[in-house]
Amino acid sequence: MIQQPTDEARLSVRERPPGTPVILQNWRDLLFLHWEYEAAEIERTLPAGLHADTFGGKAYIGVVPFFVRELRPPLLPALPFISDFLELNVRTYVYDEAGTPGIWFYTLDANHLAGVEAARLLYHLPYRYAKIEAQKDETTNRVDFAVAVNGVAANMSYRLRGTIQSAPPNSLEFFLIERYALFAANEGRLFTARVHHSPYPLCEAIVDEFDDRLFLDHGFVSPRRSPDHIIASTGVDVEVFAPQEVDLRGVP
């Protein structure tokens, strides 16, 4: 029987998993752009064992550009020119048969070739090597972010400002941002991995330029409108744990 996520499950998944993380990294200056999308259409893109998660009956697709800093194994220092890179992911929100809420990535684009290959191999995530450039003006907190991959180019420009606070439980921001399980599929097998960090410190984002052309790269129709929800975060320090295979026995 499929169990939908409970309020308790959405809170408990934020607890730190047992064991030792495999990777440490810092995520900085994240922009979260979200568009409402038909849950049934998202459902058709998901592998067996996953279901479209909704808030108030609405499903969402997100575009999230950010800076990765100090990627390293535990107990080892970050290395210059190796540990820092740029990433942009296109994602939606799902839950498994046990009601665990998480993220399904359509793609994760990064300008770090070794990191892309490692993530594809170890976590079965749909990483792609991409040409990405970004600059941040420390005075104005303006970020200019440009990605080019598979013949598709997208440009974004945003500024972080306003009061920093965490998302209250049961809010749309909590539903979209506070996700601590990720799912991936490979050759009919489903995998999940946990991440742990403090709750996101969220702030207002002023978006001067956005781009939805990456929707087309994933077979979706372009929304042709501004995002339905915009928010940003200064960032979090992240622990990433080893992936586990999800038992699909009994899943149709």
Describe the protein's architecture and organization.
The protein is globular, with a radius of gyration of 17 Å. A hairpin with a 2-residue loop joins strand 8 and strand 9. The protein has four helices and 14 strands. The chain has one domain: Acetoacetate decarboxylase-like (Beta Barrel), CATH 2.40.400. The protein is mostly beta strands. The longest helix is centred in the middle third of the chain and has 11 residues.
Tell me roughly what share of residues is in helical segments: 10-25%
Query: What's the CATH architecture?
Result: Beta Barrel
The SSE string, one letter per element, is HEHEEEEHEEEEHEEEEE
Morphology call: globular
Biggest sheet strand order reads: 1-3-4-5-10-11-13
Total domain units = 1
Under CATH, the topology can be stated as: Acetoacetate decarboxylase-like
Mean pLDDT equals 94
Class from secondary-structure proportions: mainly beta
Our Rg estimate from Cα atoms comes to: 17 Å
What percentage of the residues does DSSP assign to strands (E)?
Answer: over 45%
With helices defined by DSSP (H or I, 4 residues minimum), what is the helix count?
4
Q: Identify the CATH homologous superfamily.
A: Acetoacetate decarboxylase-like
- Report the uncertain regions: none
- Largest sheet properties: 7 strands, mixed, barrel
User: CATH top level?
Assistant: Mainly Beta
User: What separation lies between the terminal Cα atoms?
Assistant: 11 Å
- The tally of beta strands, per DSSP, is 14
